[in-house]
Amino acid sequence: MTSTRLRRTTGVVLVLLALTACGSQLDPATVAKASGQDGTTGTSSGTTGDTGLPAGEVPAAGDVPAGGEAPAAGPAGDPGAPAAGGTGGAGAAADGGKAKGKGSPTGGAKAASCEGFKNQTGITDSTISLANVSDISGPVPGIFESAQQATRAYVEYFNSQNTICGRKLALTNLDSRADAGADQQAYIKACSDAFAAVGSMSAFDSGGAATADSCGLPDIRSTIVNPERQSCKSCFGAYSIRTNLISDAASKWFAQKFPDAVKNAAVLYINAGAAPVNAKSMAAGFEKGAGWKVNYLQGIDVAEFNFAPYVQQMKDKGIRAVTYQGPYQNSVKLQQAMAQQGFKPDFYLQDPTIYDRRYIQQAGSAAEGVYIYSANDLFENTNNAEVQLYLSWLQQVKPGAIPNYYGLYAWSAARLFVEKAISLGGKLTRESLVGALRATSAWTGNGAHTAMNLSAATTPPCLKVVQYTGGKWQQVSPGDYMCGTVVDSGIGG
User: Fold this and answer.
1) How far is Cα 254 from Cα 320, in angstroms, rounded to an integer?
2) For the chain, N or C: smaller number of CB within 10 Å?
3) DSSP states of 239-268 as a string?
4) What is the pTM of this model?
């Protein structure tokens, strides 16, 4: 491998590793300095490099299961422009707009009076400006484009039917370029131009943390991956997680189903970026919370192409359960090496990064029987009206776009902003919005995911276990979500 290819591969994997587990920690000192651009971009098009989680057929625009609200046609151009036929004026906010019920753009929020509503930073007589700061360019072009697409989808959905005290939503997309410096630049712009940031997703989100905090910008993110961002008082993740806090729900399920296997388990990970601390935290959490015994905890270098020695070591140790953290491309290499050496553990478990059609295409028969854990519902669940609403509107704003869980949580973040803003009415300010978010302790995104405690910013205790079998992903754990306790691993806190 040439030095150029090695640098490119290393950059790609480091970005992917930022998101392989809860509360990933990345040292901003290792990030290259910003290139001096202003970090702005228009609404992105295309899905090149998008880490999608597609599974099953994406519904046609407007196709929503019974119980949900069929989406009205959104605006074709600027997501901040009023939709044709959309309602306007204070009356629209006062009565919640056209659509009613929890599936409507305003959800179950009770609209407050607009009396006393004031224009302020990011708010004019006609618009409320929002910013989305996500990694679009950089080592993996378009890696979090799904977050901007999902945010735009919700903005268009809302604008097609509603206003907030007579104002439509306007969305500005900013590119954080997988770079802490670019993230900071983008948040300087957001602080001066936008009322709030919504649905953002950045691998190096530490960069703009202090900036958002210092200006009091409400920052409702898809998820937060760095501890610096977790410390930001005005920043929240629709997917709320912390590195040292590990749910024991899934690990206990495996301990009950495979009691002998978990006593001789392996935890493997890519030896770069945030993966080591997250893998070690997970291993410790599984041992502490569910009685696992991890006898092989091993990092694999970024540029490694020969996985056979690691498989041989697992065979020598008699490993019966394998858990892996890393990008799906490396999952495929590991599983192929396992198959070549005839190594068949009782189960193979990974985070949701392999809930991706490209993983299935590359892994082939090796994908059969693999497990993932998930804090959100599956795209295959046609009975989940909110998930199908996201899929439907995503196709309206970008036909052929690949849905993934970063996008789903960005959609959830946009809904969260709208519901809180509607509830505040004339009292809406940056400060009051942050206060309302800080008081939110059980946000489910209208049923799209398990309850998230934004107030405490902790890892949720509830998960579901999903298995790929018979050519499709399906939930195998009981009930909706299994709820356990959150274990402090003592690592990465």
Assistant:
1) 12
2) N
3) E---TTEEE-HHHHHHHHHSTTGGGSEEEE
4) 0.80
Q: Whole-angstrom Cα distance, residue 281 to residue 279?
A: 5
pLDDT digits (tens, 9 = 90+) for 332-380: 999 999 999 999 999 999 988 788 877 898 999 999 999 999 999 999 9
Q: How far apart are CA 326 and CA 376, in angstroms?
A: 19
Is 284 in contact with 277 (CB distance < 8 Å)? no
DSSP character at residue 475: E
Q: For 410-437, write each residue's pLDDT tens digit.
A: 999 999 999 999 999 999 999 999 999 9
Report the alpha-carbon distance of residue 302 to residue 299 in Å, rounded: 9
Which of 266, 411, 391, 380 minimizes the C-alpha distance to 334?
A: 266
**Residues 464, 214 contacting (CB under 8 angstroms):** no
- Best CA proximity match to 112, nearest among 437, 423, 435: 423
* Distance separating alpha carbons of residues 217 and 193, to the nearest angstrom: 11
Residue 14: enclosing H or E segment and its boundaries? helix 3-17
Token pair 């970005």 is found at: 15
CA atoms within 13 A on the CB side of 308: 3
pLDDT digits (tens, 9 = 90+) for 444-461: 999 999 999 999 999 999
Determine contact, residues 143/50, Cβ cutoff 8 Å.
Answer: yes
